[in-house]
């Protein structure tokens, strides 16, 4: 059931990216060009995503236990450190240069777009570089909450 749920969620997410044109780098770059030919249409996509996520978090916190897995994991850290700011900066620079982020790039892989394969290779290299960082600097970002006995 967990695999089916993950597959359905991923499929719905990918279809949403396709319908909203988030997989079109030109559309994304036009959205990011706030001092030029700005296209604000993707702002509605972001507002919808934030609203759906906020609703999901609200339900998860209220319920206290997940439906398909053993524990609820909600981020607890609120601090800003160098690694978070550096990662966000690198993400923003990459998004601004190529108009892709991981979700749309993975969706584009299914279309066989060569740029998506290049992006994917760079993303894997970045993940590999992260694993080379000293592990003592990595702190957990989530706290496991016990399952609700009433559920």
Topology diagram in text:
Blueprint lengths: L1 H18 L5 H8 L8 H23 L8 E4 L6 H17 L3 H8 L4 H18 L10 E4 L6
Antiparallel strand pairs: 1-2
Helix pairs in contact: 2-4, 5-6
Describe the structure in brief.
By secondary structure, the protein is mainly α. Helix content is 61%, strand content 5%. Strands 1-2 form a two-stranded antiparallel ribbon.
Beta-strand content bin: 5-15%
Number of domain units: 1
Write down how many β-strands occur, each being a DSSP E stretch of 2 or more residues. 2
Helix content: 55-70%
The number of helical elements comes to 6
What is the averaged pLDDT score? 84
Describe the fold and architecture.
This protein has helices at residues 2-19, 25-32, 41-63, 82-98, 102-109, 114-131, and strands spanning 72-75, 142-145. 9% of the residues are buried. The protein has one domain. By secondary structure, it is mostly helical. The protein has 6 helices and 2 strands, in the order αααβαααβ. It is globular. Strands 1-2 form a two-stranded antiparallel sheet.
For this entry, give a set of tags:
151 residues; mainly alpha; globular
